[in-house]
Amino acid sequence: MSNFLLIHGAAHGAWCWRDVIPELQALGHTARAIDLPGHGQDATPYTDVTLDAYADAITAALDGPTVLVGHSMGGYPITLAAERAPDLVQALIYVCAYVPAPGLSLSQMRMQAPYQPLLPHIRMTGDRKGWTVPRDDLHDLFYHDCPPGTVDYAAERLCIQATQPTSVPVDVTARSAEIPRYYIRCADDRTIPPEYQGTMTEDWPTDHVVTMACSHSPFFAQPRALATHLHEFAKG
User: Fold this and answer.
1) Which UniProt keywords apply (predicted)?
2) What domains sit in the chain, N to C, each tagged with a CATH number?
3) Three-class SS of residue 31?
């Protein structure tokens, strides 16, 4: 069985994997999640948060060969961590996540999508070094098919998302490109257009990509199904 390290996306934290970890453990895996700097229980000010710091936190948490799973924005730091410690990464799994493109930051990749569902909901901080999403927008944007109580649970834990990590590219080399990689598309995603998720993976092997009929938050909407897909990918 495999050792999973689960990495959250923008404004989230390790808390979003609450329902997936026990499902993976029930399948015989070791599974854990961490808070990236400035998220969850990590008190780093958002003004000090960088993509490098994200990757450093991930590599520091690697303990032997690990399946790295990144949700949404998390696709960038897991790729950078794999560049830095490829011998410790068994596989990369992107869950409705951005797969770094050569020379492009995440923000630049976002603008290449056919439409921009997230942008109207972003509220910048006064210093423009971070952003949040209004509580009233959370249900429709992230959690529309999730169980009752999800919005309340998330709203208490969501944090300011620093802009720096999404403003710099990842230099993808053979160090990470040669690691097996897999993708879970979300067909009812209202944050990253499903069509764009297809574009990012259009040249991937068909058995390395699956589609879930759910929102941008499969960890709450369908945790058991998500864990099953992760399990199957980890088997290679």
Assistant:
1) Hydrolase
2) 3-234 (3.40.50.1820)
3) strand
